[in-house]
Structures are given as structure tokens and as C-alpha cells.
Design a protein that fits this description.
By secondary structure, the chain is α+β, with helices and mostly antiparallel strands. The chain has 4 helices and 11 strands. The strands form 2 sheets. Strands 1, 2, 3, 4, 6, 7, 9, 10 and 11 form a 9-stranded mixed β-sheet that branches. The protein has a two-stranded antiparallel sheet with strand order 5-8. A hairpin with a 4-residue loop joins strand 2 (81-83) and strand 3. Helix 1 (2-19) packs antiparallel against helix 2. The longest helix is centred in the N-terminal third of the chain and has 18 residues, at 2-19. It is elongated and about 65 Å long.
Length: 210
């Protein structure tokens, strides 16, 4: 890329010298013409073959500006949506006390605890299928601590499993149990297993209803 830029500048200089007859004023004119051409140079910042020096010169400020517009991953409320870089969107729709126990499976309320189900909406806005098995939840009390234990109730269960195709949305849920002494205000963190260690885990705050 650096070679092409030099060749273009040389051609511009030659044209300016020819037009002005090769005199001293022509050289000055060529110098004045050269500066705007450099300023108007367009660089493809997504080009993987771009020289690092050129990227720092033309793209660093743009990258810094873009990073400030990324979706926030903390301070989200139930009903709000977080979008990962690959296009997968997640919304914690809500959390509700669970009472529809399957007696045939000997399910029953746990004394001193709140049994509840967290409902998620997922939408794949990317170009590749997404493995829902890579998602998991951490649920913590938002008032005075405490972490909910994961469980699974049979009736109405829609676990995080399988794959979600591009352009498809789905509703899933996850069941938990939290000691009543920790209250009903909770923080739900949606984890995602990935080779990208910089991937954010969005946190949603809300209250268990019902």
C-alpha cells in the first residue's frame, strides 16, 4: 500500500510540473497540490494486509471512537437486550416463582427457599448457527448477597441446549433456588463459553415475581 501511495504522488507531481512548464513556481504548485491528495487518502481499515504503521496513522482514532459505542454489559434491567459481537442477542425477560411441581417426579417446594424460573429470549442475528449449550446463568441476590443453586423442574422446561440458526429467535428458561433470607431482588449473569477470553458476560437486574 505504501508503494502505491508513492507512485500516485510521483504521477501527480509529474503532471503538475508538465502543466507549469517545469519552472520554480511549478514545483511550488505541485507541493501545494500534493498535500490535499494525502489528506483525502482513503484507507480500508478492515484490510487484513494493511501495514501496521498505516493502520495506526489512519484507523486508530476510528477504532477508539467505535469502542465507546459498544453495548453495555452491566446495569441492564430485565426486559433489556444485550448483543454479542457475533450477532447473538439475549434478553432476560423475567424471573417468576415456580409452583407447577410434578408430583410424579416427587418435585416439591424447598423449605426456607424460593423456587423460581428465569426466562430468556435469544435471537441469532449473526450468519452462523449458535450453540445454546455454551450459555449458562449465575443468579445472585442483589440485596444482601447469596447465590442461587441451579435446579430443573420438569413442567414447561425449555433448557439451554441445541443450536439456534441464523435469523431465528427462541425462548428458553433456567430454574433456580434461592434462600428466602436473600430476598427476591436478583442479578442474573449470562455466561458464554468461547475461545474469545475478552467476551463480556451481561448482567441483568430485576426481581422474582409471584
Amino acid at each position: 500500500m505504501r508503494v502505491r501511495a508513492t507512485a500516485a504522488t510521483a504521477a501527480l507531481l509529474l503532471a503538475a510540473l508538465t502543466a507549469c512548464g517545469g519552472g520554480g513556481s511549478g514545483a511550488s504548485s505541485a507541493s501545494k497540490t500534493k498535500a490535499p491528495a494525502s489528506k483525502s487518502k482513503k484507507v480500508d481499515c478492515t484490510d487484513q494486509t494493511l501495514d501496521q504503521t498505516e493502520w495506526m496513522k489512519h484507523c486508530a482514532d476510528e477504532a477508539s471512537t467505535d469502542s465507546g459505542t459498544e453495548a453495555k454489559s452491566t446495569g441492564l434491567k430485565f426486559g433489556e437486550t444485550y448483543k454479542w459481537p457475533d450477532g447473538l442477542k439475549v434478553t432476560v425477560v423475567g424471573a417468576k416463582v415456580f409452583t407447577d411441581f410434578n408430583k410424579d417426579l416427587l418435585e416439591s417446594p424447598e423449605p426456607g427457599s424460593t423456587d423460581f424460573r428465569v426466562t430468556l429470549k435469544l435471537e441469532n442475528g449473526g450468519k452462523e448457527p449458535v450453540a445454546l449449550d455454551d450459555l449458562s446463568l449465575i443468579v445472585e441476590g442483589a440485596t444482601n448477597g447469596g447465590e442461587a443453586a441451579f435446579t430443573m423442574f420438569e413442567n414447561g422446561s425449555q433448557p439451554l441446549e441445541g443450536r439456534l440458526a441464523p435469523g431465528v429467535a427462541a425462548t428458553k428458561n433456567a430454574d433456580h433456588v434461592l434462600e428466602t433470607k436473600y430476598g427476591k431482588k436478583i442479578v442474573v449473569t449470562v455466561q458464554r463459553s468461547s475461545e474469545n477470553f475478552d467476551l463480556d458476560f451481561p448482567e441483568f437486574t430485576g426481581e422474582i415475581t409471584g
